Amino acid sequence: MTTPAPLDTAPAAAPAVAPYGPLAPPIRDQIVLVTGGARGLGAHLVQAFLGAGARVVINYLGSTDAAARAAEAAGDRAISIRADVRDPDQVAELVTAATAFFGAPVTTVVNNALADFSFNGDARPAAHELGWEHLNAQFEGTVRAALNTVQAALPGMRAGGFGRVINVGTNLFQNPVVPYHDYTAAKAALLSLTRTLSHDLGPDGVTVNMISGGLLRTTDASAATPEAVFDYIAASTPLRRVTTPAEFADAALFFASPWSRAVTGQNLIVDGGLVHG
Q: pTM of this prediction?
């Protein structure tokens, strides 16, 4: 019986370019930028990529101590860099500093950073209370931020003929069970950007995909969620449990790995089967 190769390795005997397309470098040879990587889901994404052997750029805005601890624990395989991803100049400086530290460009971008938000439906504005300022805050933190990171990393990706962009979405635009109007609209726009960028950047060897989770048990963002909501989601899910951040991060490893080299412009729902895309 043949044992399959690990997820982060390409077939050992494969040529650099196979008849079915180029093979991507394994995760251990990638430099991965995780925005909002110091806490919550971002911290799980950072640990997943470090566990797969990648070098990781831990972006943060306010979580200075947590980012520093994570980078220190990883030694020379990680660096923490503060930047507001809504600001293109700060993002450009982030990518420049990461490239200088590792001596090679960022190959993989995980757009995870989230503008200040609490997943508590009772505390969010209803339709008659919703203002453009709510929507704009989420569009700035989601769509503009992703555009900034992609544009900053793109020259290095193009030079290397390889890149991975992994956007964090939500299953709420398929199953809007809570009134997160602003958050959900911004993530839906990010899915559109995911698909248009995949078409534009495919010839450069860059894939762009989205991972859409539901409620995760537990992150900083979901800490305010009532226990009854967790129970309801678990009971409605085929697996009868709520997806964890570590399980969500597994899907990010797939999109970065050689095994996803022909997958782009897709939205993978990782919620235990609650929503069927």
A: 0.91
Architecture of domain 23-119+127-270: 3-Layer(aba) Sandwich (3.40)
Domain ranges of the chain: 23-119+127-270
Neighbours of 53 (CB within 10 A): 15
Give dist(CA 201, CA 179) in Å, integer.
34
d(CA 224, CA 87): 28
**Taking the chain (277 residues) in consecutive chunks of 10 residues, what is each chunk's mean pLDDT?**
51 43 87 97 97 98 97 98 98 98 98 85 88 96 98 97 97 89 96 98 97 88 80 93 95 97 97 90
- Separation of CA 139 from chain center: 16
Query: Could you say which of 20, 60, 180, 183 is catalytic?
Result: 183
The answer to whether 232 is a known catalytic residue is no
